[in-house]
Amino acid sequence: MDLSLDQLIETTEIVLMLSLMWNIRKIMKKREHRRKHPLGNLLWWTRLHNTQQNRDTHSWYHTLLKPAALHDVKQFHNWTRMSPTAFNALADKLSASNLVNKQITRMRKPISVRKRLAITLRYYATGDNLKTIAAGYCVGHDTACKIVVDTGIAIYKVLAPDYLKVPDKSMWRKISIQFSKVWNFPNCIGAIDGKHIAMQAPRNAGSDYFNYKQFHSIILMAICDAEYKFTIIDLGAYGREGDKNVYNTSIISKKLAEGTLGIPPSCKLPYSNTILPHCIVGDNAFPLKPYLLKPSAGRCTGTMAREERIFNYRLSRSRRVIENAFGILAGHWRLFRKPIIGKSENIEHYTRACIVLHNYLIETYKQYASKGYADHFNANWTLIEGGWRSEEGGLKSIPSRTGMNFSHEAKAVRDSFKKYFNSEEGAVENAAVDNDGFDSCDN
Questions:
Q1: Rounded to an integer, what distance in angstroms lies between the CA atom of residue 242 and that of residue 391?
Q2: What is the Cα–Cα distance from 319 to 281, expressed in whole angstroms?
Q3: Separation CA 190–CA 176 (nearest Å)
Q4: Which residues contact 152 (CB under 8 A, 6 or more apart)?
Q5: Helix then strand then coil, % of the chain, to nearest 5
Q6: Which residue, among 164, 171, 304, 315, has the nearest Cα to 230 in the 3D structure?
Q7: What are phi and psi of 81, to 5 degrees?
Q8: Is 45 helix (H, G, I), strand (E, B) or coil?
């Protein structure tokens, strides 16, 4: 049946009116079932447990952390991995940077910088489920997730310029002296290694992050000095990549090959006329270069000559520094002791923040890297392994390999170090010397 124009308009209006009434009815039903706020018909900005009043009286920050700062410093360390003094100094730095400060609104007060820092440090120190930490600090789960990421980014931006800057020539020189005095390897400016950071399988990532040890990870490659502080890091390579690709494509490899790190020129070894370049030490996972030394191939018994065993021993002592650095990092920040749940970019933020915190605390809080926790020597110069080695979990090593091609120049540098270590001038009793043994080097 054909309808006139007026009838069609009238029918359309009726349909629209019925549809509008139906939508209004649905909205009214939702409002009827909406939970009532105890103080009246106010919008729920947060759950009752997470109100400002509860947060200021019942959260872990007020019931555990603040009393521990006054009466139980050891307990405060267990919660934050630092002293109250270091915590307050870091909180002041973050406040001054305005990177985590939030604007006060008419509806609610923002969470303070110190509470945000406490939530973040608790997550890094334990790796606990963020829902548990959020409940303890009386904040929402989504709020806690955002706090941990934002505060981690702020920590890195605030601390990195002072505690993770590439050393200049004079600083490289000081590192070289420390390696010779403490670890008996002159002209060494760092130890290098790479580790897998375990993570939950990322969404739609395929097999990119699935490594040879059958778990998902990203790779952290780093150089550290003689005091377990990281000097250069390269982070974010896929876990499935082999060790050769990880190093060759890293920023570290590029800068070392280009000579753009400000490393001092070659100089004489202590008590010797032998002139050799400054170098970094690593394991068999790395290529042999004039600036990157690794152990001689073969076993430490049988066909290996005594001179090579001595060289490998001296190099391995120095290479322990980077193993200790990773061990201390994973031992204190137990976030790295199990697969981390989160996006790969967020895991990188967590890792960078923990690394700068690691360096910051080594300089400001001496108990962080105590002698018993790291490898050290006793009065008879016997090596005592650090406590972190007996703990389970932690960062996983990338695989070693042998039989890699290297240049004649690189082999000549390694042979020169081997000859020096087996000479009277380079014996262990002469390796730990004072600064007077380094006057022949250019500054």
A1: 27
A2: 6
A3: 8
A4: 120, 124, 349, 350, 352, 353
A5: 50, 10, 40
A6: 164
A7: 65, 25
A8: coil
For residue 369, the SS3 value is coil
Residue 396 region by backbone torsions, left for phi larger than 0, else alpha for psi between -120 and 50, else beta: beta
> Cα separation of 269 and 292, whole Å?
17
Look-up of token digits 């110190």 = 114
Tokens at residue 266, please?
A: 């070659």
Joined together, the tokens standing for residue 91 give: 């909180």
Query: How is residue 391 written in tokens?
Result: 């703990």
Residue 174's alpha-carbon distances to 179, 189, 417, 441, in angstroms, are: 9, 9, 20, 12
How is residue 114 written in tokens?
């110190």
pLDDT tens, per residue, the chain with 443 residues:
565 666 777 778 887 888 888 888 777 766 655 555 454 444 445 666 667 767 778 889 999 999 999 999 999 999 999 999 999 999 999 999 988 876 555 556 788 999 999 999 999 999 999 999 999 998 989 999 999 999 999 999 999 999 999 999 999 999 999 999 988 899 999 999 999 999 999 888 888 899 888 899 999 999 999 999 999 999 989 988 866 678 888 999 999 999 999 999 999 998 889 999 999 999 988 999 999 999 987 655 555 688 888 999 999 989 999 999 999 999 999 999 999 999 999 999 999 999 999 999 999 988 887 767 677 666 666 777 776 666 766 787 776 655 456 778 999 999 999 999 998 888 876 444 444 444 434 43
Distances in Å between the alpha carbon of 429 and those of 20, 30, 307? 92, 82, 17
For residue 66, count CB atoms less than 10 angstroms from its CB and return exposed for 0-12, middle for 13-18, buried for 19 or more. Answer: middle
Q: Is the dihedral of CA 335, 336, 339, 340 positive or negative?
A: positive
The amino acid present at 214, given as its one-letter code, is Q
